[in-house]
Amino acid sequence: MAILKVNFDRRQQDVLDNFIPFIADRAYHSQQAVFSIPELQEAIHKEYGINIPGGVLKILAKRCKKRGMFRQEAGVLYPEREALAEFDLSASRAEVRRKHAALVRQGVLYAKEEFGEDLTEDAFDGGLNAFIKENAAPLLATVVNGSPLVDLGDTQLGSMRYVIGGFVSHLHLRNPEGFEYFSAVVKGALLATSLYFPEDTSFDAKLDRLRIYADTTMLLRAVGASGPDLQLLARESIELAIKLGARVYCFQHTLEEIVGVLDACQKAVSSGGRYSHGETTEFMLSAGWGASDVLELKESFEARLEAIGVRVREKPEHDRPLTLDEPRLEEVLQQEIGHRNRVALLRDIDSLTAIYRLRGGRQFRHLGDARAVFVSHNTALARASRRYMRLEDSERDTIPLCIPDFVLTTLLWLKQPLVAPELPEHVIIADCFAAMRPSDHLWKRYVEKIESLRERDRITDDEYVLLRQSIAVRSLVMYQTREDPDAFTEGTLDRVLAKAHENIAGAAMAEAADARQGKSQALAELERTRADADRQKAEKLEEAQRSERHLRTVARRVGHMITMAVVALVGVAAAIGASLATPWPGVSPLTFKGGVAAVAFAAISIAAALSLYGALFGGSLKSLSATVEDYLSGKIYKWISAGATGSSEIPEGR
């Protein structure tokens, strides 16, 4: 408990982080070209005796990637050898084993010389391990802080405990090198107990109230429709859940969706692969399935589910007080997933709203109390359910309506006791010491936390596992993978490599299509640019023509007005002059002097000139007026055009 609490408080690490060195070590030594869960599972079990479910390895792979141990390309993970080399545990493990063996040999010799006891190395090692477990806290305080050794009390003389206690005291007082070996063994044993439970633990999983509803992908995998490697992953989750007392179900509408998928698979295998429908179709085609094989699977699917402990169940009836805002839920699902098939969208809505009703509209922080949860391979659906319920950072340890399948596997794995591997105890101690390697500062914090916890009542196994899972939930349910799609790691090495090649080919085809589309778009853009330029040129020409027509109209009107005014003025003057100069009967002719004479003369002259113009050129006053009007209009047009454009070089016509 102390190590768990200090690691979380000081380093924000949960118990899963303790397994990362084991993964990195085996990934470094395996020389695998890509990250493959089945191969890595086997390698870890073979070397360390640890059985880590595939779903847990998928989460740990994500954490390793964040720390630079793997890089994601073409949808798969590739190891970064230099980063992984730091986690090569070979030398550290060998060193701790050497110290442990030397310590045991010294102990056997001490028992012979001091007590006359002929002990085998195995017997002494067993006694030493029992002594360390019995006195773990005070021994750790001794090796870390130099505190006094544990008091043996009324230990019987000559007993194994008495011999071991004397040996430890001898090391502490007279053998610094031997005590250093003892310190490494004590620390390794403490780390091992923080990681594993004793087999006789009384912990109660308490998942008998939990109902798990699996999605289409998980159930297709579980019955083997997507291949044996993916079947193993799905069955791990289901078997863990059933082992811990949970019940696993399939909604009736999910079964209907599965039947639709198998119909598409049957069509695909009948057509020789012309119609593809994801991983299930790919496996069936590669395994040589025929249409009759798919039909047989479809007809027996419900029976196969029951054979692995999964039952089909109708969704609960709608209840108005437990009704979600389905239009808003649909909007969130479309934003996160982007459904093209409305039927699939409505089924997702049915699943999430059904879980909400099964929970009675309540929120829960522990998986065992959550009553119901929908489990999906689609992380976008899980993210959408969390977003819809507005589970922000302050509520990040709340169990959402939907969680990814690998998260469920991990929570179930953490919910049960992690029993130590079936390996010699000194091997487990060396492995844990080499893998976890806390700093001296952290060891001091561990001792302080142990002392503070000792002041309380005994920490139960239930309390420890509950805290371990609660800490993990905070990081597991925040699967923000929208911009960073999950890498494919579930298949065998060959299948992962095939997936990488498929993704590379798909990316190349997409790139070529994008290039063609880009070229087409560029040509279309060029045509649009040319059309826009022509349109703008035509608009400018039309505007110029409209402006010219307007200016000429204004010029003609002004010229006409001036001409009419002049003609009228001349006509009036001529009429007056002629009237004054004409001898009227009974009226004496007037004698003109000064200005009046000049006006009369001018009027008579203009009238005479007009008469002469008409006689010589056959013109009339009207035609002369028109000529004058045209002349004036031209001059006026030039003048106002020059004022409008700032230039006097304006063409006279179009």
Summed up:
The chain has 654 residues and is mostly helical. The chain has helices at residues 2-11, 20-30, 37-48, 54-66, 81-85, 90-115, 121-134, 136-145, 160-174, 176-195, 216-222, 228-243, 252-270, 278-286, 291-299, 301-307, 326-336, 342-358, 379-388, 405-415, 425-436, 440-454, 461-476, 493-581, 594-617, 621-645; strands at 70-73, 76-79, 211-214, 247-251, 310-313, 372-376, 402-404.
Q: End-to-end distance, in Å?
A: 98 Å
Number of domains: 4
- The best one-word shape is elongated
The percent range for helix content is 55-70%
- SS content category: mainly alpha
Unreliable stretches: 199-203, 479-485, 647-654
Strand order of the largest sheet: 5-4-3-6-7
DSSP strand count: 7
The residue-averaged pLDDT reads 77
Rg over C-alpha atoms, rounded to the nearest angstrom: 48 Å
How many helices does DSSP assign? 26
**DSSP strand content:** under 5%
> Can you summarize the main beta sheet?
5 strands, parallel
Please describe the structure with a list of short key phrases separated by commas or semicolons:
single chain; Arc Repressor Mutant, subunit A; 4% strand; two-stranded antiparallel ribbon; disordered C terminus; 4 domains; five-stranded parallel β-sheet; 26 helices; 654 residues; mainly alpha
